[in-house]
Amino acid sequence: MTSPLTAPASQERWTPRLWGTLLVLCAAMFLDALDVSMVGVALPSIGSELDLSTSTLQWVVSGYILGYGGLLLLGGRTADLLGRRQVFLVALGVFALASLLGGLVDSGPLLIASRFIKGLSAAFTAPAGLSIITTTFAEGPLRNRALSIYTTCAATGFSMGLVLSGLLTEASWRLTMLLPAPIAVVALLAGLKLLPRSEREKDHNGYDIPGAIIGTASMLLLVYTVVQAPEAGWASARTLLSFLAVAVLLTVFVRIERRSPGPLIRLGVLRSGSQLRAQLGAMTFFGSYIGYQFLATLYLQSLLGWSALETALAFLPAGALVALSATKMGAVVDRFGTRRLIPVGFALMVLGYALFLRVSLDPVYAAVILPTMLLIGAACALVFPSLNIQATNGVDDHEQGMVSGLLNTSVQVGGAIFLAVVTAVVTASASEGSSPQAVLDSYRTGLIVVTAIAVAGLLITATGLRTRRTRHPQRTVLVAKSEDVQEERVPVRD
């Protein structure tokens, strides 16, 4: 259902309330990215003050990923059924409380619990926020512009989080945990006034409780298994049994969804070639980036001895490029279409990773690191808005939350899986007591894997270039050489 606030396709200028709605939603996306980037720099200080072992300390990060990645599917469908505005605001309030708790606790388990709760709340705000945009802004240039600005806030939040954490951690790591709380409260108060009211879905066929339970359990177990695999061993009995259990749960989940009159995920949505490419593209793009960011941070701080602030400033050009291009990307998508822009972005990402393979123990920033950061920034500016547009175009309003949750799940699960793979490769190629050059070589091996993941994403998304379009008055028919004939209600280039 669209709200009274919905902007018609012909409206070129946004009202102040439309801008206010978008800013509230952008604030939540900004907070998610800000929180993820800030905690990484603060980990050494957290471990020292709370006397946490390395294995326990990793759960400060993994707890957030577990809650976020494991509950996104449930969060997306809940937004459709219970009302997007209601779900978004409640989850944002929980996020603020968890941020406050995280800054005040004095024990590792409580801190990890607060991180899990924050991840859980983000699993509801992310799909609800995205679906509010897609049901408020009419499909086409208006939505493309809104989604470009919205997704840019993630890169901006991540970049600012790196810089702010470097500054705040000098005073206290607790400030990095507390900072999101007042921002979330301001966004919550603004949202109460500005967000369009949404009704619960009236024509749904009941709540898919078995699907919600099995689907959530399978995602939680998958994320947990992947996060723990590098420590437990990929070939260990625990890891293999966990993956087997995930396979069984997913099989049961698929059977439930195929028979349910009101499924958590309508599996038919994945028959669309553009939808499938968007989901796989999200997995590989974010998975390759998070692996690169992990290795680049280790390289700059552990090998080169750069401070946290210096490392953050090294990454800043990528985020700044994304932020500066925010208002222009909607027009770029309108002109060239997502099916062209996404492979181009992947190509830039592959080139950036390939350039970074040239790093040494005495690099020249302007010649090696800076070009990589600029290429990655350009890739993010092209790909992230395009993925969101491609995934949500042609989808009915009552399924926008479901598709948004599915896309965010692809991002989080892809990040968790590929980061674990990259970590395992680096660990396997490193030897105890290695020289700095040997450590660099192990990082380079991981970077080769990162590059290969990006190449896979490029090849997958490039298949969209083979589609041939025939336009009709009310729909666009896509005919692909390697896919069945599909009809998609997509009035703009995809």
Automatic annotation (TrEMBL):
GO terms of molecular function: transmembrane transporter activity
Keyword flag Cell membrane: yes
Domain of life: Bacteria
UniProt keywords, alphabetically: Antibiotic resistance, Cell membrane, Membrane, Transmembrane, Transmembrane helix, Transport
Gene3D superfamilies cross-referenced by the UniProt entry: MFS general substrate transporter like domains (1.20.1250.20), Multidrug resistance protein D (1.20.1720.10)
GO CC term, one of those recorded: plasma membrane
Chief location bin: membrane
Protein's recorded name: MFS transporter
One GO term (biological process): response to antibiotic
Domain Major facilitator superfamily (MFS) profile: 21-469
Pfam families tied to this protein: MFS_1
Intracellular or extracellular location(s): Cell membrane
Entry membrane topology: Multi-pass membrane protein
Residues passing through the membrane, by range: 21-44, 56-75, 87-105, 117-137, 149-169, 175-195, 207-227, 239-257, 278-300, 312-329, 341-359, 365-384, 405-426, 446-465
Organism: Streptomyces sporangiiformans
InterPro entries noted in UniProt: MFS, MFS_dom, MFS_trans_sf, Sugar_transporter_CS
